[in-house]
Amino acid sequence: MNFLPIILTFITLITLFNAGFWRGHRELTVESKCYRNASVKQRGACNQIETKNYNKAASKKRKKSDKGKPETKEGFFRDCHAGNSKSRLNIGTLTKQETWDQDLYELAVDYLIKAYGHTRYLSSRAEATALFDLMLEALADTPDFKEIDFEKLSHYRLKRGTIVYDLKKEKGFPSLHELFTIRGGAPINFRFAPSALLELVLGEDLTATLCSLEENGEATKSLPKSEFEKLLNATHPSSAAKIRELFRF
N or C, which terminus of the chain has less Cβ within 10 Å? Predict the structure, then answer.
């Protein structure tokens, strides 16, 4: 019996099978690479879109968080503190009749004029007094400036303020809740008090001297209490004790 044709047939079948197998394997490998490359490109495109959206959202958030902050970001620490919660004038005693302080009331009205007197929203002391009276009336029911309905008081723009401001240069203006606070303790935190507020209490000359000493020393630290009191006694001998009561150190 001749086995040669059978063997040749068998070899031919194996050869055809191997060729088909390797052709299929090669096609599968190429297809797999194509899918993998497409997936990588798609994932990269999605990441770029997500990164772009994130940066856009973060940019909007930064702009919103910058709103109402002082124009000076670096420099003299008192100007940088303006708008900080610790730099605000504490009018807590004015919300209760039994602790009423007329001097603090006048100071608060002066502070309103200092902040908004250069704008079209507040052009006279009478308007500043009327606004502050409305604020005190509203605070009797809502002890939080952010909850006051200033639209009802016709002063909504003052609630929002401008994006940047500088009280000393009279550029822009802060929101009302950045000027005042309600809590226990003395009206002014000496360490964080902005120079614009100090000028209303100490006068321009003493404030200029005080700020000069602080700037020439360590410009991130307020003058020690003992040195401040020496200056205060020397320049305001008759009212030093009364002025000192306004500060907490």
Answer: N
Closest-CA residue to 245 (of 183, 185, 184): 185
Q: Give the pLDDT score at 134.
A: 84
Determine contact, residues 179/159, Cβ cutoff 8 Å.
no
Secondary element (H or E) of residue 90 = strand 89-90
What is the spatial distance between Cα 200 and Cα 108, in angstroms, rounded to a whole number? 10
pLDDT (0 to 100) of residue 38: 56
3-state secondary structure 112-126: HHHHHCCCCCCCCHH
Residues 6+ apart with CB under 8 A from 248: 185, 186, 188, 189, 190
Closest C-alpha to 142, from 170, 173, 182: 182
Place of tokens 């602080």: 214
How far is C-alpha 137 from the geometric centre of its chain's CA atoms?
A: 28
| Among 8, 243, 247, 234, residue whose Cα is nearest residue 103 | 243
